[in-house]
Specification:
The chain has 214 residues and is mostly beta strands. It has helices at residues 2-11, 104-107, and strands at residues 14-21, 24-30, 41-48, 55-63, 67-69, 81-89, 92-93, 97-98, 114-119, 124-129, 132-136, 142-144, 152-159, 168-173, 177-180, 188-197, 202-203, 210-213. It contains 2 helices and 18 strands. Keywords: Disulfide bond, Receptor, Repeat, Secreted, Signal.
Length: 214
């Protein structure tokens, strides 16, 4: 029995955490500290905070991987959720490892906008698209993150003559089309953008650079 107890402890999953980007939500964990824990299989359950019964996640029942997609199960974005994982090896099951409480609306990371640039000889027009959630409208199009948050766009310009690292903020607001004027012909400029949620005081990462020579 003692050996079983040791095996139970040594394969118990570690660091059970929710990761979420634009409401695409996955549960991650690390294998137990024993070397052989790498060969373990994992079982995932989830529940809404306050519920007494745990739900099995069928797609993540006896899996070798260390990640489980719970996007669909956490679609009520204002609710707080828990996930938990246990491991099995050689017929021995570990105890459950519990995640911290996770509330999608509060904790999902919001991605940067999609950026396209069109130039004329002295200006750049920047077109922005909000990031999309995994959830669909009845017609099948993905619902954008602006449905869930009051999002602002922050647009930065990089003058490649001056300094690659210096990003000048040229716009903050809700417009999807922005014109940056009075630029120098023949100079290479790059544009990057972020989304910003004032209510949560949270910014996305920078978008990928879109560059153009006037």
């Amino acid at each position: 029995v003692l050996e079983n107890q040791d095996l139970q402890d040594s394969i118990k999953p570690q660091k059970v955490e929710f990761h979420s980007l634009n409401f695409n939500t996955t549960l991650h964990w690390q294998p137990g500290w024993a070397g052989e824990a790498r060969d373990a299989l994992y079982f995932v359950q989830y529940k809404v905070y306050g519920q007494s019964t745990w739900q099995n996640k069928d797609d993540c029942w006896g899996i070798p991987s260390h990640v489980c997609d719970l996007t669909h199960e956490t679609s009520d974005i204002q609710e707080p959720y828990y996930g938990r994982v246990r491991a099995a090896l050689a017929g021995v099951y570990s105890k459950w490892s519990l995640s911290c409480r996770f509330t999608p609306w509060r904790e999902t990371m919001i991605g940067p906008p999609m950026v396209a640039v069109v130039h004329s000889n002295k200006s750049i027009t920047v077109k922005l698209q909000a990031p999309r959630s995994p959830y669909e409208r009845k017609r099948g199009s993905k619902i954008t993150m602006t449905n869930y948050y009051d999002l602002l766009y922050q647009v930065f310009i990089i003058n490649n003559l001056l300094d690659e690292q210096h990003r000048a903020l040229v716009y903050e607001g809700k417009d999807k089309v922005i014109k940056i004027q009075d630029l120098r012909p023949g100079v290479s400029y790059c544009v990057v953008a972020k989304t910003y949620v004032p209510m949560l005081d949270r910014s996305s990462a920078y978008s990928s650079r879109q560059c153009t020579v006037l």
